[in-house]
């Protein structure tokens, strides 16, 4: 590098403003390295000089991928970057041969960042920017050695990478600052600078007159195109709907073919040109972009019909599809659907990617997270499709639109994003819903087909006969014939009912049990679920019933987790399920947690094991989730099954479990110690999987109204009173401080006002319930303890954070109350809470940002009266001293 490069290094180094003066050296690479390394501790300096390898990083990503689907996506994103990045490292190796202190900083920071997904995503984007500019040059090492311009440009990039290393080191040594959002403005500036340096490398390499043979250029061009497509596929993060489509391909022959003869389908589809119904764009009947609705009850086989139509329409043209699933965080919104449809379209037409590639490069995100942007790109691609006679037609199939959380608000925008002349027709499948009873904006003239029970009767009969023939003790018997007949009659066209009922018969231990089942068949899915649970609990021991009660209590995490967290966690994960079973088992782990869950939850809950060391749960059908969400509405006769009775007081059961976690469970103490010490090695990778579900179980209990208690059965009522006592003791003593401190560190470190929102919403309920108890001692005491605890936490937050109460969170005059209740400090709890909050407010550098716009030391800054615990401004506190506070009328 020339002398100007040395000046640039001296002025642009990330650490130049805070490190010792630049050492005397003739090598600007060593100067830049010294500026960075001098700012590191001995262990970090050693890590940098012996950096990680790409294989170590990929292995760590693979291990994390067993826990999170997003890590699998990152792994797919990384693979095409490896060779270009190795070329960059190979060029740096030229310097390494001269100075052993110089090393490639790429893989070391990557290994550090892997444990935190948000950090990893941002870092991979930066690496991709480097790879894009270096992937073309096979001989980058030679260019670097022979051409000063290339060496100078790479030196600038190297210095930016050192800045990145500094940010990563800050993250690792002060992880508490980045606990939820490790990359902020600091990393955004590094990413922008690296993007510019990567472009400079590309320009310098071109200026070096690097001559490539035609064959090499063609090969590298093809390689670049393929890698760009892979980048786009990873950026769009399409849901793995092909796996579900494969699972659904087992529909019985002929069971879905009736739809092809329906008048509505023929009108929507138009005339066919061959025996497969293949049609070109000129023969499509009706207006384009119209939608055909297929409506069916839960369990009637809509998803199987979707699989059949996808297969059938694929013989007629290009078929794009998406299967919504409310339980899957990657498949429950129109953003997920639009990204998947766009990714499928790119796979069919890879030549139409230039505009999308530009959007990707400008996004700076690993995943396309803007619905408007994705829909716009989808419209651009469709506008480029051929539309002349003879061109293939395009179909889009959406299954389970009632499981899409934003279907009503987004469907119109999806349709209008498609060009009016685009050769597209849409199929929508969903259950009966008010959405379908009014004209659908997706189609100006909607066509609808209802899946009638009569269409499925004969096919369900054939299915039942085949299943019975596989059962040794029922095949070719009168009882087997009776089982088929009654199953078909009671199923009433519901495939799921027939399947679950036959599963019960298959597990029956004797002919007498089968006969008893047939003599009292349930009506509909809801009664069938009751029947299955009654049958299951009859076979369980008392300990197994207790495990099963909490399994069905906690399996549906979206019932107690906020949307922004439930979406990220999909379903109950290993960490949380292990804790649930440990709680039931007196704090000890059972022998085989996933095996136990599989045994107790079957056939309504499935256990997925992506790796031998990980597992998660999901319901076999959405209707099971709906049944569990409010089982009492389905109890048409008799009592609820014992396994789901606890859900009548689910907030108390979960709250008492959370109290155990934050008091007696050693895991929560380990997590708190890790936060206190800021030691990333102590932060178990799965701790968010347990902390966040448990803390929101506790918030659920604090926000609940308990007027249902008087309706509980006597055994449940007695259990509820005990749990109220547990919660009261927790909120009234220092046992709550572990939870209080953990929540304080996490929310203060990330400046997350969700803490304030939770306090205020719970306090709103507590204020309404304070002083009430319906004559129940335990409930009265809990309501009083809950109000006192939350009122003081609110005041403490106002004193120690810069957060103001937003108007939408103030639900009455109490929103302006800042006075603490008398006596709160007498037993030490309030003093302990305030001390913790002040300590972390100072450590995390938010103490000087006083609430309500006041500056520290200014008359408007808030202060606390140590006598009566009232919160007021500094100016009012002076007056308070003169007048005297209500707890002590004497002058101070």
Automatic annotation (TrEMBL):
- DUF7708 domain: from which residue to which, for each copy? 81-212
Q: Which Gene3D superfamilies match?
A: P-loop containing nucleotide triphosphate hydrolases
- Alphabetical UniProt keywords: Repeat
In terms of domain of life, where is this protein from?
Eukaryota
Q: By its UniProt entry, which Pfam families does this protein fall under?
A: DUF7708, NPHP3_N
Q: Which residues form the Nephrocystin 3-like N-terminal domain?
A: 254-414
- The protein in question is named NACHT domain-containing protein
Species for this entry: Penicillium canariense
